[in-house]
Amino acid sequence: MKSTNSRYFIELAFDGGAYHGWQIQPNALTVQQVLDRALSTLLRQSIHTVGCGRTDTGVHAKQLYAHFDVSHSAALDDTDRFLYQVNSLLPHDIAAKRLIAVADDAHARFDAVRRSYEYHAHTRKDPFLHGRSWLLREVPDVSAMNAAAEILQQYEDFSCFSKSHTQVHTNLCRITDAEWRWVGDGQLVFYISANRFLRNMVRAIVGTLMEIGRGEHAPEYMHEVIRSKDRSVAGTSVPACGLFLSEVTYPYL
């Protein structure tokens, strides 16, 4: 018998500072938990969202998609009103931006073809960047870091940047963009895109690039790190506060 449920994508943005990441877990507040509660309250039925991926504790999102299935509700008839109502139920640090009706088999995680992250750092103390950017002690050599970042696109096995004991079937990823850019007075952003990312991968990459930027290694050291397939060879993970999931791309959105 055909299901009477309909599937929707919801686009979110959030400041992750108060949350233990996206995914629901016991004894810790997460973005998914807060969203599911708001949707269930508004739609008057139990809603369980599926996110496009996980974010770690303290990581932010400029764009994150989740899907959910729902029986017909009058609250869904007017999209603008729905967004207004769900945002009134969400805390100030989580915002619902779009609601999109999709096919019954559309999947927020498995259908995403590209994900992009930004890592924000700054070299001058700024109270307005606290919690959303990493304050550096010294100005790194951006040219050296970009030379090393280009090397990332030559490989697909990034076991060296994966958190240990993660339950994934493969450590293969295709990185299509990786570049540092100055975006303002003393503000530096690392942009990276790939078809998928491993847990803690971006923060480990940034930590390795920062070692190169401080002159501890030549840019070519990145070859050695990646070929080692050993997390202990790569740099220390940088603080979560500077990391943003910035864009998720689907073939049908």
Structural description of this entry:
The chain is α+β, with helices and mostly antiparallel strands and 253 residues long. Strands 1, 2, 3, 4, 5, 6, 7, 8 and 9 form a nine-stranded mixed sheet that branches. It has helices at residues 31-43, 79-89, 142-152, 201-213, 221-228; strands at residues 6-14, 50-51, 60-70, 94-102, 114-122, 134-135, 175-184, 187-194, 243-249. The longest helix has 13 residues, at 31-43. The mean pLDDT is 95. It has five helices and nine strands; from the N terminus they run βαββαβββαββααβ.
Note the run of SSEs as H and E.
EHEEHEEEHEEHHE
Can you give the helix content as a percent range? 10-25%
Mean pLDDT comes to: 95
Low-confidence stretches: none
Main sheet characteristics: 9 strands, mixed
Shape: globular
Counting DSSP H or I runs of 4 or more residues, the number of helices is 5
| Helix/sheet category | alpha+beta
Computed CA radius of gyration, to the nearest angstrom: 20 Å
Percentage of residues in strands: 25-35%
